[in-house]
Design the sequence.
């Protein structure tokens, strides 16, 4: 752990303690835009650079040990370098990493997905979650022969052209640089938790598919009302739209069968990535046979006029298949999710106790094995019992709190304490411990104290 005695401000301490990361970042910025390879890793003045990871921890280039709440952007349910996954990968490495052909590993992997995910009667693998949502939308459009995809404010479905409308506030923004207006015109965005507005839009008759994160936007940052998923299931059936659950984060995390098993609502199609590929690059689309069959080769007329095409050099590559099969086989045991959920509950409770003790503006919330933090002037004490989370937030709240400089300062303050948060929150893996949670809560207490001392809540 770092736990260096505070010498100056949070920012000046960071410049000193993470000097090597700063050096890496300056080098990176000359050849990589903003020096980062994922927009989500942006941290001002510079992000930490990592040299090694094991279990629930990782080590920065500066030699600092960090508790890691990013865990591979949520893909490492069993933590870094899980011995079972690593040895499956080693075995596969010795047999080759790409056959330009089918292989047994992809069949076993698909069979395991079908066994675990209620909606998955058939599976197609992809290179990433973004590709999985792209394929899901194409299948929905091909199956219904309609055009428009309906999505919800704040829900993230990767960075492909049909996914970015309404993803970040202001949700009503009609343009995204680099994406043709014509493309954006084929996507409709509505707020979540409003069945009347949803039905009004569905009744216009042009909706091919409805996609959402079944946890609520951004892994439960904006929770869904208790009955919203069932309303959505009923309405999409009524109006003949394909219901797509984007389970890239929730799949195998919310339960062995994802959010759909946890909430008992089965979509038509499910997109997966992250845990499904055991931390390796990879994703999948699973769904009803009659929809997945849109991808099948049949007679010449069908192939030319109706078949939905899909390719991808790295789809189901043997290395991802080995990691993915091993990972989801282990994730089939519900005590895995229970362990992670319990740690997250303990974390959310502990963090909220710290907020109360300091009488600081903010709160922690979340579901399953994730936690979110809202800190600063805009954070209010939310008691909207109508939402699934007792302190539920709305899309309107996200508009005011997302990406606030204070959240970045908290992230930096926590780095100085040996903790790497992820998107002002984090996710748990089985390698995390009660001790990690206790250290994190204690560290958060000190960071809030420093922020108060620096006058950040004034
Ligand atoms: C819900 C959701 N869908 C899709 C994606 C995109 O997945 P990928 O980053 O593998 O392209 C993400 C990534 O975080 C996600 O959280």
Sequence:
């Amino acid at each position: 752990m770092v736990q260096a005695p505070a010498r100056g401000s949070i920012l000046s301490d960071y410049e000193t303690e993470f000097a090597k990361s700063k050096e890496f970042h300056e080098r990176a910025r000359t050849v990589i835009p903003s020096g980062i390879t994922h927009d989500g890793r942006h941290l001002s003045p510079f992000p930490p650079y990592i040299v090694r990871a094991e279990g629930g921890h990782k080590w920065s280039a500066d030699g600092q040990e960090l508790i890691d709440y990013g865990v591979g952007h949520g893909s490492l349910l069993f933590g870094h370098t899980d011995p079972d996954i690593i040895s499956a990968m080693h075995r596969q490495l010795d047999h080759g990493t790409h056959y330009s052909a089918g292989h047994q590993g992809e069949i076993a992997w698909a069979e395991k997905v079908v066994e675990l995910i209620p909606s998955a009667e058939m599976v197609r693998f992809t290179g990433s979650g973004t590709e999985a949502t792209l394929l899901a939308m194409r299948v929905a459009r091909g199956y219904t022969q309609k055009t428009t995809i309906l999505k919800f404010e704040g829900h993230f479905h990767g960075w492909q052209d049909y996914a970015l409308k309404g993803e970040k506030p202001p949700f009503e923004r009609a343009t995204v640089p680099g994406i043709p207006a014509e493309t954006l015109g084929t996507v409709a965005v509505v707020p979540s938790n409003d069945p009347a507005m949803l039905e009004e839009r569905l009744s216009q008759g042009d909706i091919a598919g409805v996609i959402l994160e079944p946890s609520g936007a951004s892994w439960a940052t904006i929770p869904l009302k208790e009955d919203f998923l069932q309303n959505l299931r009923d309405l999409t059936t009524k109006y003949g739209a394909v219901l797509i659950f984007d389970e890239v984060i929730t799949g195998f995390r919310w339960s062995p069968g994802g959010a759909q098993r946890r909430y008992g609502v089965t979509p038509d199609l499910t997109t997966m990535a992250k845990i499904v590929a055991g931390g390796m690059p990879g994703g999948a689309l699973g769904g009803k046979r009659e929809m997945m069959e849109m991808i099948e080769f049949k007679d010449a007329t069908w192939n030319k006029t109706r078949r939905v095409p899909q390719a991808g050099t790295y789809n189901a590559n043997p290395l991802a298949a080995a990691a993915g099969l091993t990972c989801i086989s282990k994730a089939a045991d519900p005590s895995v999710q229970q362990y992670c959920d319990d740690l997250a509950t303990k974390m959310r409770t502990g963090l909220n106790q710290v907020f109360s003790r300091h009488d600081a503006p903010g709160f922690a919330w979340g579901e399953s094995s994730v936690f979110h933090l809202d800190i600063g002037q805009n954070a209010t004490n939310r008691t909207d019992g109508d939402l699934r989370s007792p302190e539920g937030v709305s899309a309107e709240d996200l508009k005011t709190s997302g990406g606030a400089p204070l959240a970045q300062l908290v992230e930096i303050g926590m780095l100085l304490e040996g903790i790497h948060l992820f998107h002002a929150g984090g996710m748990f893996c089985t390698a995390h411990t009660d001790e990690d949670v206790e250290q994190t809560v204690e560290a958060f207490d000190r960071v809030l104290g420093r922020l108060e001392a620096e006058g950040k809540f004034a």
